[in-house]
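Dear colleague,

As promised, here are the two records you asked about, laid out in our usual form so they can be pasted straight into your sheet.

NAME FIELD: protein one
SEQUENCE, THEN STRUCTURE:
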Amino acid sequence: MLQGGKWGAVDVSGYLRVGHTDGARRTVQADAQTGLDTRWGTQASRAPGAINNGRDSTDGALDLSLDQWRFRVAYKERDDIGTGTGVASALDPEGHIYSQAITSDLTYDNRNLAEDWAVNLQASVMHYTELTDLTLYPAGTNFFGLGVFADGVIGNPAKWERHGRLGGSATYTGFKMHRIRLGLGAEREEVYKTRETKNFHTNFTPINTGSRADIIDVSDTEPFLRPQGRTKRYLYAQDEWNLGKDWTLTAGVRNDHYSDFGSTTNPRLALVWEAAYNVTTKLLYGTAFRAPSMSELYAIINPVVTGNPDLRPEKIRTLEAAVSWQPLTKLQLGMNFFHYEMKDIIRLINSVYQNNGQQNSNGLEFEATWDAVKDLRLTGNYSYQRSVDEATGQPAANAPRHHLYLRTNWRFTPGWSVDPQVNWVSDRPRELGDPRWT
């Protein structure tokens, strides 16, 4: 449900969406417990069995605008989230996760603050909750020979987070042929509360018989994650330079400093050529990073994953060449060739997060948008990539070779539309060493 209008001088819009899906119901022939059964002579595995991918979803947002001011608040809830193939790669058909995110932001955007100057200021906050009910390994498991669990290895971690952000940017157009943008900001991220109940000791032996009746609260003594916080500061500069007729060069650099792992600096370049009235070409280069999450840094006393406070951020270097062509008024086509190199990839090695490995990829993308008739729009894109793990020379795990997306939007009557979509992902290699790897 989507609605917009006026409330006096205030522009108002909002939406509400409620949904449910059972998710894909593919069958897993063998899981992690299958291997434990073979090793310890048990028969606890639930494989063959269906993966658990269902969820209920509720989304809502309200947007208010007045002159240079804009206020937004949003709510996002996911309930009964299935655990897929299981958090520990052992099927868990009853396991579920709950998450809730409440966000709000206030923006001041003045494009005529003074001659040649524009300014944008933003403050935002978010509160996030995550609750779980997980059976890591099923009833009857002899967890690595440490003892039989009557009702399985059960762990129910929960966490509460709050995030705050302040940022601003200024744009100056007083120099001929240049558009200069400067920005800075700060963020605070806190896991301010954690809770955990489980039926196993710190050495992963069962508490008593390992039943649900043996679950205890270890939030104050043996939590999976202790409350943590970190601060991020950033600043950036960018110059959009009109080199001449039909040519534009954008150059920028950004520095991010995290209180837990230090600083990283990343440049970007974009050269754009308007080759014809209906053809645009682009050449882009840049570097970026992914900061390690709180769990990747600080998770403890966990049979599935252990954090590593010495982690460095993942880094990526990208190069792209793209062309956009509009042969007809109602038809737009695009093609993109890309290459990227990743290093310091964060991976689980013997259940501990580590910076391990490098990966490179080459690929291409096609996209098209066609307004077939007045009320019917067809869009789609296809991508192919070949990603290689440099340590093994084998295809990189979990990087799909093919991805096809198709969408139709038909506004068959005022206020109503039909919007079917198809999303197809193919040839996603498994981790080398996975017994199912081919």
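NAME FIELD: protein two
SEQUENCE, THEN STRUCTURE:
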Amino acid sequence: MASQTLIQGYSILQAIMEKAGQNSWQVSAICVENFNDASYRRLLEDLDRRQEKKFVIDCEIERLQNLLEQIVSVGKHVKGYHYIVANLGFKDISLERFMHGGANVTGFQLVDFSTPMVTKLMQRWKKLDQREYPGSETPPKYTSALTYDGVLVMAETFRNLRRQKIDISRRGNAGDCLANPAAPWGQGIDMERTLKQVRIQGLTGNVQFDHYGRRVNYTMDVFELKNTGPRKVSVDNVYYHIVYYD
């Protein structure tokens, strides 16, 4: 998991650097060696000396919570500071200490808790015995919803393959990734094609894919933090790239 996060971080940094080069932006990359409170404070103090007040925060939910706590501890949660939280679970984050500070905090929410499917799940979730299901005292995170939908996609794929009478368990060419050129798995093409054709309603809304296998035609809510809590300000449809404002 750590190596996967590192690779993702490098890919994001590479995209930023490429965009900066195209637009003649000045970008500085700072390496934070230790993910602890002292390192976060030093980073924030260094940014403060540069008079930076606009931030996009993109990190794992566990580190994000610690970073937000340090932002409050050094007093950078007040009016004049602007934060965009770049994950998909704005409601998963504890922002009580930010609510009355005055900083502008914006984030994204993939799971819509008002949909019938999510509402039904939450009703069942709240009835779980915490002794039998440790962790059920807190709501599931958006990453859990994505995992759930991923399993649904695979299950639907296998059902569709069976309807097409394609038996992926039959013996045949197992494939060889190290061959030159690589030899694909015999049933791999059928699996890929069927995966791309899946269209279901999951906990994260509409799930479907384009011919490249990328997810399309789903929506995210955009939230701002007010002194009364998170408030939805718009809905972004990721297929048409249209934002509908309340």
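A couple of things worth noting about protein two: Strands lie at 54-57, 82-85, 104-109, 200-202, 205-209, 215-216, 219-226, 229-237, 242-245. The mean pLDDT is 86.

Best,
R.
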